[in-house]
Amino acid sequence: MWTGWLLTLPVVFSFGSSLNAYYTAALSPPIAAIVGAGVVSGWRVWAREQRRGRGAADRKSVLLPIGALALLIGAVGYQLWLTTSPATTAPDWIVPLTITIGALAVLVFVAWLFRPARVLLITAIAAGTASLPFVPTTGSVLLASQGKGIGDTPFESANKAQFYKSILHQPQKIVIEAAKGFKHLQDGAPYLMAAQTSAVAAVFIDASGEEVLPIGGFSGKTPSPTLNELKSDIRSGKFHLVLTVGKSHDPRLLWMRAHCKGVGPAGVGLDICSPSDAGNG
């Protein structure tokens, strides 16, 4: 299952017309599961050989550990390549620290291959587990601590950061100001509003930090939430404001435009729905 997941997503991504960096987070669960299964499998091989006794039989069972060692060296090398590539803005301390942790893991692993002691194996697993996610984890923490958003990637160059800022910052300021106005119309509801498509909802969520109920998924055509579910949410006061973009023949949006009060300017579908608009069921 995990291998199928890991092989399918890159194929899907390769056919996509656009790919945001954060989409690749979907690869993390299968990678983690496969690595975890490998650690357990390696431990079982080691334990089995220990029960059989040391000697020639032990030396024949090093293929799996050697494969793990090769993967560890490759992973650490790839992290170093990422952080030392031209135009990156990785902190000065991250490269020597990555080398230190990675070298420790490799040396202990090699020591265990020549002297298969339990303490060396545990130390090798711990050091390897620490070194594998060190750079991506550090990058994620730095992005979050610096208040970066969906258009940013770890250690991005100054030119790239400025480019994203130029195309995202001004629209985001507009969205933030709009969200402040919408806040006055929220009237204590859990959701700031409901918005046609998750893409529109995501913009307001990212800019304001408020909950926004998406209608129709990314394309706007996904049948969730249903019209009955939306009516129920309106009756229970979960949201009052509805934002739609462009013309749509979606029955859910047509119903809200027909039953709720339009308050937006021309060309913008902005409606306020009160519990009474949804009737009694």
- Tell me roughly what share of residues is in helical segments: 55-70%
Rounded mean pLDDT score: 82
Could you state the order of secondary-structure elements as H and E?
Answer: HHHHHHHHEHEHEHEE
**Biggest sheet statistics:** 5 strands, mixed
Contiguous runs where pLDDT drops below 50 for at least 5 residues = none
Give the strand order of the largest sheet, numbering strands 1, 2, ... along the chain: 2-1-3-5-4
| Number of structural domains | 2
What Rg, in angstroms, do the CA atoms define?
Answer: 26 Å
Helix/strand-derived category reads alpha/beta
Can you walk me through this structure?
- With 281 residues, the protein is an alpha/beta fold.
- It has 2 domains: 2-145; 158-278.
- Helices cover 60% and strands 7% of the residues.
- It contains 11 helices and 5 strands, in the order ααααααααβαβαβαββ.
- Strands 2-1-3-5-4 form a 5-stranded mixed sheet, with helices on both faces.
- α9 links the parallel β1 and β2 (212-215).
- It is elongated and about 80 Å long.
- The mean pLDDT is 82.
